[in-house]
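Hi C.,

You asked whether I'd gotten around to modeling the 320-residue construct. I have! Everything is below, sequence then structure, no commentary in between.
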Amino acid sequence: MKSVLLIVVFALVVGAIPLVTTSGVWLNFVMMALYAALLAQAWNILGGFGGQFSFGHALFFGFGAYVQAIAQLQWGLNPWVALVAAAGVAALVGLIVGALSFRYGLKGSYFALVTLAFAEVCRILALSLPFTGAGVGLMVPLRESVANLQFGSRVGYLYVILAMVVAALLVSAWLRHSRFGAYLQAVRDNEDAARAAGVDPLRVKLGAIVLSGGFMGLAGAFYVQVFQYIDPGIAFGSTASVEALVAAIVGGMGTVWGPLLGAFALHVLADLTRNLFGELPGINMVIYGCVLVLIVMFLPRGIAGVGQNVRRLWKGGRGG
């Protein structure tokens, strides 16, 4: 209940931001930070709680994005219905990839490379298939209305992505405290010991990759609605995979709030370096990369781990 109350407070605070400011810059910053948080939370379900590192989560992002666009352009579905279809198809792709990978015992670097290979194969296929728009991509026509999931300002999109992030937070909190989550973390820590204790690793990992793929598909569908365009490079390229992985690692893998903290911290860092050193080509990315290396080196448990250490010291001090 404590986790749920914290999530409710977070939703109320972020939901009140449009009431405090109408600045397009701030609203866009919050919206994109929440979008990055959704990517990180999706990856964290499988990589953080499940210990199954993926380098190709763009696979699920791309399927979600293309289903969202194709469902509207070629099937005539309402965007809200397409949103559900996008999450469902991405979850199904996760189930297929998981069945092909986990059934044959792939894990660690082998699983990471397999997911990367799947994403790259889909990118190449999307470049040549006519219904994906091939290399040109697909553009969703602008029809501003709530019914069409298109808004005249960032406020509407902010509330949509906030709802998705809150849903992912609730799932993460459930994984943290539920029996299925305990099974998943047991498989992460020692798969053989978990199997000896009666846990079915294949079933547990399949459940995790389905949840992870579904949320990643939602992120892809959201991207299409905001930017109204998708092509193979955006859908199945490395950008979504890297952003999801890095934010989760920086924030703290296997935690409820770590991916959210990591996403916001990285967006603040990116904006600061871009504004301070934007006139020097490439220097902002160099500084950005150096800070990331320092965080990984000196904060191995991520930003969330710092908070846990502070709480532990505080309780120890009070106990003393």
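If it helps when you're writing up: Residues 201-227 form the longest helix (27 residues).

Thanks,
B.
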